[in-house]
Write a structure and sequence with these properties.
heterotrimer, A alpha/beta, B mainly alpha, C alpha/beta, A: alpha/beta, four-stranded antiparallel sheet, 12 strands, about 30% helix, B: 10 helices, about 0% strand
Chain lengths: ~350, ~300, ~350
């Protein structure tokens, strides 16, 4: 199989210049700064980075789900032509849970413990599509069957705590796809699950994606999941998008030192008991981001005269973008994973 | 009284390993750092100082009667006026501060002396020890505090010390519950398992790892109980079961003032305000410690 | 050191027939009513200077096995030997002596350090407890211990809450190494850590073993971590070891259907490789731990289950000198030509 080529046409979700201020520090080194990326119809995009890089914040901001007190300073989030950051609350509510489904990391805390799973799924249908209670209930059973829950007719009356973690995550997904969405935003949907259950959930998402022509925005820190599930990748570091590319572009031809360092830090099956790459230091806490390139203090390729200046997001060939001046200036070549 | 139970005696080696007093500093900083709790600490400090040197600074002999000068209004001679025997109210308030501070200390000391070791034991041993101690605590807790204290005083005989011992026994289950709960939470922490894994004895684990980590909640409870004990002592003295005349506590002074409210309506104010201020101070300090502990737990 | 994977290297840890149950519900008097067998007959050995990776998913009992071997819990039946000495039920001074030889690294570096104690206290406490140094000497002793895990000796004065997760785990490792143990049991030592910190700790664990030659029992749900560190791997499912072999054998030629499913479920951070792999996606959930299926415990999710699997509980049998599998498909009676390649006579290991 060859690497999927870049899709043509209007993106389904288009995030442009998204900037979120640090509370109490307006205008200074935003928590998330100038984040730009597109999710295309029927494709899946991974948002990756270590914790503290702003990837969850970005995905939540896209649906205006940020906690109060975290102001979006600038930027736009266009979904199907509507700017979600500026539309009226009514329009926003129509989008959330309707054409955009959401799956969170912890199914147990995201499902309402006092409602049956059937009612929770049916609620979305009734709210967004105005279906009758009876029709929505019937549809909920179909949806539970669709996500592979055995005995859906009985399970529909279960409460979340009566289900296992894997089953709960299936219910979350059933809720997310209840209103035939075009996009599903999944924030670490398998991190809390065992790996065999993770494989089941990813397979389910893959099937749904194919059958419903779904676009998926997957927030994850697991490079294996990225290689397994995604088409495109956005790498974030300390609130900046540092690289945007296809997965093959990331793994075999990374164009940002952070991406390259991350790849080298992961054990590869071919070379057990060898030393792994270490990225010295840690992600700086919000508000203490350095000037210029934010990865500079941990980077093995730091050139003060170049890297202390603000880095611009530059396009290389095949739509591969990097925020490293040394790479886009052509004087630095990086290594990825060996092809097999 | 010595609240340190045998189970918590420190190993010779335990105390001396490198240890910085930062945790205690953090609590202290939190208390001093806020105006309300800093002022409260000031009030308590003044009270303690007065309790120690009171007789030296009191303008008059607190028991000196001057029947010709009963219910005198406040004046420069008698700042808070005089009472039904013509005694100087300011001097009596100052002198009574000793009882006011010592009486709750007896109660809280007894509560700690009973509650701390039993709570630790129940948390560590579990099983029937925990079950029996828990039932016992429930039984005592089921009695209304004042009624329980009255019953115990009926057995021990009246008198301030007996009364405060009674109050201490009533408090013990509360302290037991707090210690047991906190210790149980701490013993489930990985660092206690880690201490087991390096071969620490149970005694050392208790002294070095459990006690410092439950100190803060226990301290909070101590300040709260100090306030409550002060009020209970005042109530009992008010009922005539506490301090016996001519000795005075703020509670007994309040009682006397209440009895003569038609002759000197303002006489309830000095002991009343002193009491409110003191209880408030203890509670404010307790709150500050609790918040400081919250900060530590969140990290 | 001679080839550490050879079977005749000195056996440092030997566990036989470990069984451990936990009560699920109790009567009013605290008697267990219903209980769950977290570990149900586990044998394993760890050779000097080698790492045995114990891998499995939640509920497999791997963590309990680690705790039983480290004497943080006592088995219902079965025995643990460390360097030939039965330590299953030792107490008092003998238990304390065992602690000096066998140390545990905990999963959660955030909870494993007492927040009221300095880093220096944490790393020297084992030495003080065992009377190797006096408390007064502790501060001086902290420096070298911290340097062993490449932390600045200055850290001795810091508090755990001033440290990052990776630094804390270094402190925990320094503490575990203080007594120069012959055995390390590491329970998910990297799973609470971030991506880039994880590699740091994995490198450190490798270095330590290469320098001091401990026997290591590495307990983890993450096959990639186990594959990276371990010489041998044992795969657990539902309280049993279902397959054991050298790391290479398990990674490249898994035999037990559960091992195969587990491995195929681990996504490889390499898109080409991942695209070309065959995925065995299991059906269904883990069974109820209190009521495992009859016969083979894996049969309810097994893609190749047969009727016989409901009746016979397959024992762990040796396929070769280095490998054993607990599966009816790999037993002498039903051996399929493609399935098994037995070098010597089949012998029962359990």
């Amino acid at each position: 199989m060859t690497a999927p080529s870049r899709p043509a046409g209007e993106p389904l979700l288009s995030v442009r210049g998204l900037t979120i201020d640090l509370p109490g520090d307006p205008g200074q080194r935003g928590l998330v700064e100038d984040v730009t990326f597109d999710v295309h119809r029927g494709r899946s995009l991974a948002l990756i980075g270590e914790s503290g890089c702003g990837k969850s914040l970005t995905s939540m901001a896209a649906l205006r789900l940020l906690p109060p007190g975290l102001p979006v300073r600038s930027g736009s989030v266009l979904f199907d032509g509507v700017d979600l950051l500026r539309c009226r609350p009514r329009e926003l509510r129509a989008v959330r849970g309707g054409p955009v489904g959401i799956v969170f990391q912890e199914p147990m805390s995201s499902l309402n413990p006092t409602m049956t799973v059937g009612d929770q799924i049916a609620e979305a249908r009734r709210l967004h599509l105005g279906e009758s209670r009876r029709a929505a209930h019937r549809r909920a059973i179909e949806l539970l069957e669709r996500v592979g829950i055995p005995n859906a007719g009985q399970r529909v009356r279960s409460y979340p705590h009566e289900l296992s973690g894997g089953m709960q995550q299936r219910v979350m997904i059933a809720g997310a796809i209840a209103c035939d969405p075009k996009l599903v935003i999944a924030d670490e949907p398998t991190t809390a699950l065992d790996v065999t259950i993770q494989a089941e959930i990813l397979q389910l998402l893959r099937d749904l994606q194919r059958d419903m022509d779904l676009a998926v925005l997957l927030v994850t820190h697991d490079l294996g999941v990225v290689a397994d599930f995604c088409d495109d990748v956005v790498v974030m570091y300390a609130g900046h998008v540092v690289e945007r590319t296809s997965i093959d572009g990331l793994f075999y031809d990374p164009q940002h030192p952070y991406s390259s360092a991350l790849l080298a830090a992961v054990p590869q099956s071919g070379s057990p008991r060898t030393r792994l790459n270490v990225i010295p230091g840690r992600v700086p806490p919000a508000g203490r981001f350095p000037d210029g390139c934010r990865f500079r203090p941990r980077c093995g390729h730091d050139l003060p005269e170049l890297c202390a200046r603000p880095q611009v997001d530059a396009e290389l060939e095949h739509g591969h973008r990097t925020r490293c001046g040394r790479v886009s200036g052509g004087e630095l070549t990086l290594e990825g994973v060996a092809r097999v | 009284m010595d609240p340190a139970p045998p189970a918590t005696r420190v190993d010779p080696a335990a105390g001396a390993a490198p240890r910085s007093p930062k945790q205690r500093n953090r609590v202290l900083r939190a208390v001093v750092g806020r105006p309300a709790s800093a002022a409260s600490l000031g009030v308590v400090t003044v009270l303690v100082v007065l309790a120690i040197i009171g007789p030296l600074v009191a303008p008059y002999d607190p028991d000196a009667q001057d029947l010709s000068n009963r219910f005198a209004d406040p004046s420069w001679a008698h700042l808070f006026g005089t009472d039904d025997f013509g005694r100087d109210v300011l001097s009596r308030i100052i002198t009574a501060s000793r009882i006011t501070i010592v009486a709750p200390l007896i109660s809280v000391g007894i509560a700690v002396a009973i509650g701390l070791p039993l709570g630790l034991l129940a948390a560590i041993r579990g099983g029937w020890v925990d079950a029996v101690a828990g039932r016992l605590a429930d039984t005592v807790l089921a009695l209304p505090a004042l009624v329980g204290a009255l019953a115990i005083v009926a057995v021990l005989g009246p008198g301030l010390v007996n009364t405060m011992i009674a109050v201490g026994i009533i408090f013990a289950p509360t302290m037991f519950r707090i210690v047991r709960g906190a210790a149980l939470a701490v013993t489930e922490e990985t660092f206690v398992q880690s201490a087991t894994a390096i071969g620490s004895s149970q005694r050392r684990i208790l002294a070095v790892h459990v006690l410092p980590n439950i100190a803060a909640p226990v301290l909070v409870q101590v300040t709260i109980l100090m306030g409550v004990a002060l009020l209970v002592e005042a109530s009992l003295s008010f009922l005539g079961l506490g301090v016996q005349p001519p000795d005075a506590s703020w509670g007994s002074m309040l009682k006397a003032a209440y009895a003569s409210q038609f002759d000197a309506p303002y006489a309830v104010i000095p002991p009343g305000v002193a009491m409110v201020l003191t209880v408030l101070s203890f509670n404010t300090i307790g709150d500050a410690i609790r918040d400081a502990v919250g900060i530590r737990r969140r990290m | 050191m001679s080839d550490p994977t050879s079977p005749d290297a000195a056996t440092v840890v030997r566990a036989t027939g470990l069984v451990k149950s936990f009560p699920l519900t109790r009567t009013l008097l605290g008697r267990p009513l219903r209980s769950l067998r977290a570990v149900d007959g586990v044998d394993l050995t760890v050779q000097a200077g080698t790492t045995l990776g114990l891998v499995g998913e939640s509920g497999s009992g791997k963590t309990t096995v680690g705790r039983l071997i480290a004497r943080l819990a006592e088995p219902d039946t079965g025995a643990v030997e460390v360097c030939g000495q039965d330590v299953t039920r030792v107490r008092g001074a003998e238990l304390k002596a065992l602690r000096a030889r066998l140390q545990f690294i905990f999963q959660d570096p955030y909870g494993a350090l007492d927040p009221t104690k300095s880093v220096g206290h944490a790393v020297t406490e084992p030495l003080v407890v065992h009377g190797r140094i006096s408390a007064a000497e502790a501060l001086d002793a902290a420096g070298p211990l911290l340097e062993r895990v490449t932390l600045d000796p200055e850290f001795a004065h810091r508090r755990p809450d001033e440290l990052s997760g990776g630094q804390r785990q270094r402190v925990c490792i320094a503490r575990a190494l203080a007594l120069e143990p012959e055995v390390l049991v590491a329970d998910e030592p990297t799973s609470a850590l971030d991506l880039s910190t994880r590699s740091e700790i994995l490198n450190l664990l490798l270095d330590i073993q290469q320098r001091s030659g401990q026997a290591v029992l590495l307990v983890s749900h993450d096959f990639a971590t186990v594959r990276h560190l371990a010489h041998r791997i044992a795969v657990m499912y539902f309280g049993r070891i279902v397959e054991e072999g050298t790391a290479q054998e398990i990674a490249e030629d898994p035999r037990h259907p559960y091992t195969r499913a587990l491995l195929s479920a681990v996504p490889v951070p390499n898109p080409d490789l991942q695209r070309s792999r065959q995925r065995t996606v299991l059906q269904g959930d883990l069974p109820d731990p209190a009521a495992p299926p009859s016969g083979c415990r894996f049969r309810s999710r097994c893609p190749v289950a047969m009727d016989a699997c409901a009746n016979d509980d397959p024992p762990l049998l040796a396929l070769s000198a280095t490998r054993s599998v607990a599966c009816l498909r790999h037993q002498p009676s039903s051996r399929t030509p493609a399935g098994v390649d037995v070098a010597g006579p089949v012998e029962t290991v359990r």
